[in-house]
Design brief:
Strand order of the largest sheet: 5-4-3-6-7-9-8
Strand content: 15-25%
Number of helices: 6
CATH superfamily: Vaccinia Virus protein VP39
Largest sheet: 7 strands, mixed
Structural class: alpha/beta
Order of helices and strands: HHEEHEHEHEEEHEE
Radius of gyration: 17 Å
Number of strands: 9
Number of domains: 1
């Protein structure tokens, strides 16, 4: 099983892909990348993640950080362009494993990793339950409804923060909270039926 291969170290999530300045310039021109400064470091992001950083950083600082992060590994499910991976490393995480289904976003995670010398591993894939067996201490999940897959998982999950979209399945946030012992930490005002669930600490 994939779970056992991860445990044995047979599958390595890390991808080291060289990116030249010409390649980066092409990405900027073709996809309208934005240069965003996060904690005094410049990152290249797609327009939507760039807007999220500008609008939601105070929310991340208030709700997305576990009490103890120093030296820990974070599983970042729905990693975008690497903005939350950098966020966690800046706040003390030793390593972040990024799960991201968008190939272009994965390329930008690689660009940002190389530019900022971040200890990030990339799995360019749609989330599946086997990813929960990758060793980690904390999980952040934001996959626009894909969190419904967690209802099929029978084991415990690590301490986490999960953005839940109830429009995908009625009562999803309540079901996930009951299943994994989470609580509702926030309800978005601008998005109907979108909640942030967190582990009790």
């Amino acid at each position: 099983m994939l779970r056992n291969k991860f445990k044995q170290g047979i599958i390595k999530a890390e991808r080291k892909l060289p990116f030249s300045n010409n390649c980066l310039d092409e990405l900027i021109n073709r996809f309208g990348l934005e240069r965003v400064t996060l904690y005094h470091q410049e990152m290249f992001l797609l327009p939507l993640p760039a807007a999220m950083v500008r609008e939601e950083l105070p929310l991340w600082e208030r709700l997305y950080l576990p009490r103890f992060l120093e030296g820990k590994t974070v599983l970042d499910v729905g990693a975008g362009c690497g903005e939350t991976a950098f966020f966690y490393i800046y706040h003390g995480a030793k390593r972040v494993v990024c799960i991201e289904s968008d190939p272009l976003a994965c390329k930008l995670i690689e660009v940002n990793r190389q530019r900022l010398n971040l200890n990030i591993e990339i799995i360019c894939s749609k989330f599946n339950l086997e990813h929960l067996y990758i060793p980690h201490d904390f999980m952040k999940m934001d996959i626009e409804g894909g969190e419904v897959e967690l209802l099929k998982f029978d084991g415990p999950i690590a301490p986490c923060v999960i953005e839940v979209h109830d429009q995908v399945q009625k009562g999803l946030s309540a079901r996930l909270a009951a299943k994994f012992g989470l609580f509702c930490a926030y309800r978005f005002k601008y998005a109907k039926n979108v909640y942030i669930l967190k582990s009790h600490e």
